[in-house]
Amino acid sequence: MRILIIAGLPNSLPEFDYDTIVGVDAGALWAVKNDLALDVAVGDFDSVSDEEMIQIIQSGAEVHKLNPIKDETDFEVALSDSLENHPDAKIRVIGALGGRLDHELTNIFLATTPKFSNFARQIMLQNEHNIIQYFSAGKNRIKQIAGMKYIGFIKVGADNFSIENAKYPLKAVDNFSEIYASNEFLADDELITINFTSGVVIAIHSSDTKLNVKAIGDF
After folding, report:
1. Which H or E element spans position 203?
2. Which class for 139: exposed (0-12), middle (13-18), buried (19 or more C-beta within 10 A)?
3. Containing H/E element for 26?
4. Closest alpha carbon to 19 in 35, 1, 36, 34
5. Per-residue DSSP letters for 30-81?
6. Residues of CATH 3.40.50.10240 domain(s) within the chain?
7. At residue 215, does pLDDT exceed 60?
8. Quick one: CATH architecture of 129-218?
9. Taking a C-beta distance cutoff of 8 angstroms, is the pair 23, 30 a contact?
10. Residue 219 in this model has a pLDDT that exceeds 80
11. How far apart are the C-alpha atoms of 30 and 73, rounded to whole Å?
């Protein structure tokens, strides 16, 4: 099962086949205006007009209208519902990066929270400059994504973190920071290995130049 969540207003659409397309608030309207087969629309829809809401409803999508006064963000509800209905799904998220910084940081760290950490490996966020993946404790081998020169790591409760087979390796005993930016793969076909004993690590593949997200690889 492949699910695409449109969590905002992306610049373009990844070129893959999806079993389900979920639009979050204005992301649902973006899907309708771009002639996508929207399956589910989730949100309090405070960022769309009454006329635009009618367009979303008339698209035939299953609409989950939320109370604007709530403890969860619209994206969190969409992600939670998607995993509840399809716990083994691979979920790609677009439109979640950029814009308001508080929203962006919430979107990035959401998969590391206890509610989602067991599903973190199934979730990927992307835009034209970045691909974000999540890794659970243990030994993880990471392949380079075409066009993405750099890779950085953010530790979230990750102990004994180490990096092997990278331009800048790191031994667990030398671990002094929560963030390690601007690392690189040794070669296109070489895999970087990260190892840690607890928590989650966010891996950020990035490029200085804007990439065509249609060309970006799968999980």
Report:
1. strand 192-206
2. exposed
3. helix 26-33
4. 1
5. HHHHTT----EEEE--TTS-HHHHHHHHHTTPEEEEPPSS-SS-HHHHHHHH
6. 1-127, 129-218
7. no
8. 3-Layer(aba) Sandwich (3.40)
9. yes
10. no
11. 19
Average pLDDT over residues 191-201: 97
pLDDT, residue 109, reads: 97
CATH of domain 1-127: 3.40.50.10240
Sign of CA dihedral 147, 204, 185, 90: negative
- pLDDT tens track for 37-56: 999 999 999 999 999 999 99
The pTM of the full predicted model, rounded to 2 decimals, is 0.91
Residue type, 124: M
* DSSP SS3 for 116: coil
d(CA 51, CA 69): 22
Q: With the CA atoms of 117, 122, 123 and 128 taken in that order, what torsion angle do they form, in degrees rounded to the nearest 10? A: 150
Judge whether residue 216 has pLDDT over 70: no
Report CA 73 to chain centroid distance, whole Å. 15
**Which tokens go with 116?**
């989602």
Contact 183, 192 (CB under 8 A): yes
Q: What's the CA gap between 106 and 98, in Å, rounded?
A: 11
Beta strands 2-6; 123-126: pairing state: unpaired
Q: Which amino acid appears at position 160 of this protein?
A: N
State the pairing for strand pair 40-43/62-65: parallel
Q: Which residue has the tokens 């409760």?
A: 157
Q: Which of 38, 44, 9 is nearest to 25 (CA)?
A: 44
